[in-house]
Write a structure and sequence with these properties.
The complex is a heterodimer of chains A (about 300) and B (about 180). Chain A is mostly beta strands and about 300 residues long. Chain A is about 5% helix and about 60% strand. The chains are: A mainly beta (about 300), B alpha+beta (about 180).
């Protein structure tokens, strides 16, 4: 099944790559989605890199990469496909059930994602913009531990966006839900007594996010975004929750754009690992901070 | 990575990318060229106007959008008699300001508009004559709604809306602040 999903995802990426267009959309924020869609026939390419670092003990630094192609199927519907990759460098930290030990690998493919966004109301034409985004994701590597883990996720995200000051200031809000089926692979030579369940598990994640940005000079926006996430799992109920917030800066030009965001975990809760000293944070699946750089290019 | 390093990176990285990017400004017409397109053969007398705070407030209230400049760039167009007003204006585009010229008749009717500078990714079609022709004859009695008065251009909705709102604002400004011709 894994092979078939990988093949389908790659076929979608290839199909997107040969589509012809000359336009691009842009992400004003690192984490919060905007409601606008690409015009019909437009194609854009993204490159993302997200550095997740610091679990409060030992060394932990994971970098996620996303290479994405997005295509305007119609003026209201945008479809995209992405190849996901990551690198990981962790040592001196063992978290029972989550992080079995040191791991250090360079960039390698970890999954595929397909997305579709439909725009119901335009933020520039209607009082408020409204879109719904649905996505499916398949991962074969656990993004936290770097171990083998098959994960199938389906998510839906409601996106609203509002222009103020004729578009010089832009607000966006997201509310979403993700359902995940995960199945871990066996690991040899686990530490004695280390719990590494290999029975399939189901998880549901809820997200809410808000962001505001202001164009302080031609082409340049500065703003902030905040993200609340919580996850519920079959055995433990609410497994985690966290609030991240931080500044974002965006440059947008006719040919390309770039967005840089720094998100710091302000509060978090749920499960904690043995010996965790930062008791107001969730540091098992999250880190203390994330930095994300996105670059988009218009062909 | 410390917080200070991260903030520095946030400022430096996009700036470095911006420096590496090619210049993107596109200026299509000079003011003198736009004047001759909109009022062929006319002569133009600059008209100094300083809007009072009360006039700016009234323009904002009646047009629904901000009047950003208190010294708008206005010329009186003449050819034998007064033909109307020629006004240079700027509205917010997605990334940069859009500079355009509007020609208004003495009775408050749009004679035409010309795009002087447009620098956005999408929506270069707003320079096309067919789209600009939709403004011809508009008065404050018209609704000035996108897709009712003037068609939207996909991918450039904000630009279209702001030009449409901008022209309405100029008609209001003519009524509020310019003398009768």
């Amino acid at each position: 099944m894994a092979f078939k999903i990988k093949t389908a995802g790659l076929a979608l990426l290839a199909a997107s790559a040969v589509a012809v267009s000359a336009h691009a959309d842009e992400n004003l924020f690192g984490y919060v989605q905007g409601s606008e869609t690409l015009p019909k026939g437009a194609l854009e390419a993204y490159g993302w890199a997200t550095v997740r670092s610091d679990k409060g003990a030992g060394k932990y630094r994971a970098t996620d990469y996303e290479l994405e192609l997005e295509y305007g199927v119609s003026d209201r519907f945008t479809a995209s496909g992405a190849l996901l990759l990551m690198s990981l460098d962790t040592s001196g930290l063992v978290i029972d059930g989550y992080l079995p030990g040191a791991r250090d690998f360079a960039v390698k493919p970890t999954g595929l994602e397909v997305k579709g966004k439909y725009n119901f109301l335009s933020p520039a034409k209607d009082d408020i913009g409204l879109s719904v985004q649905a996505s499916g994701e398949y991962l074969w590597i656990d993004p936290h531990s770097g171990q083998d883990k098959d994960t199938l996720s389906a998510s839906v995200n409601v996106i609203v966006q509002k222009y103020f000051l004729e578009g010089q200031m832009i607000w966006a809000g997201n509310a979403g839900m993700e359902a995940t089926y995960a199945d871990r692979g066996e690991i040899a030579n686990l530490p004695i007594g280390f719990d590494w369940p290999t029975d399939p598990e189901m998880e549901i994640e809820l997200k809410a996010a808000t962001a505001l940005t202001y164009r302080f000079a031609p082409n340049w926006f500065v703003g902030g975004e905040a993200l609340y996430e919580t996850e519920f799992e079959t055995e433990v109920g609410q497994e985690r929750w966290s609030v991240f917030a931080g500044p974002t800066v965006h440059y947008g030009g006719p040919r390309w754009w770039a967005t840089l965001s720094w998100m710091k975990q302000l509060r978090g809760g749920g499960e904690r690992y043995a010996g965790q000293t930062d008791n107001d944070l969730h540091l098992i699946e999250k880190t203390k901070q994330e930095v994300r750089l996105k670059i988009g290019y218009n062909f | 990575m410390t917080a200070r390093n991260l903030l520095g990176l946030m400022l430096i990285a996009p700036a470095a990318l911006a420096v590496a990017a090619p210049a993107s400004a596109k200026d299509y017409l000079t003011i003198a060229q736009a004047q001759q397109v909109l009022f062929p053969g006319a002569t133009f007398a600059p008209t100094a106007v300083t809007l009072t705070p009360d006039q700016i407030k009234r323009i904002r209230k009646q047009s629904g959008v901000r009047q950003r400049e208190d010294k708008p760039r206005i010329w009186r167009a003449m050819k034998g008699g007064n033909l109307g007003w020629f006004i240079i204006d700027e509205v917010v585009g997605k990334h940069e300001f859009i500079t355009y010229a509007a020609a208004l008749s003495p009775s408050g009717r749009v004679i035409g508009i010309e795009i002087l500078s447009y620098r956005e990714t999408h929506g270069g079609e707003i320079r096309e004559a067919a789209w600009r022709a939709k403004f011809r004859g508009k008065t404050l009695a018209d609704p000035f709604k996108l897709d009712r008065d003037v068609p939207n251009i996909s991918g450039a909705t904000l630009s279209c809306r702001n030009v449409l709102d901008g022209v309405k604002r100029l008609l209001v400004m003519q009524q509020v602040a310019l003398p009768a011709l």
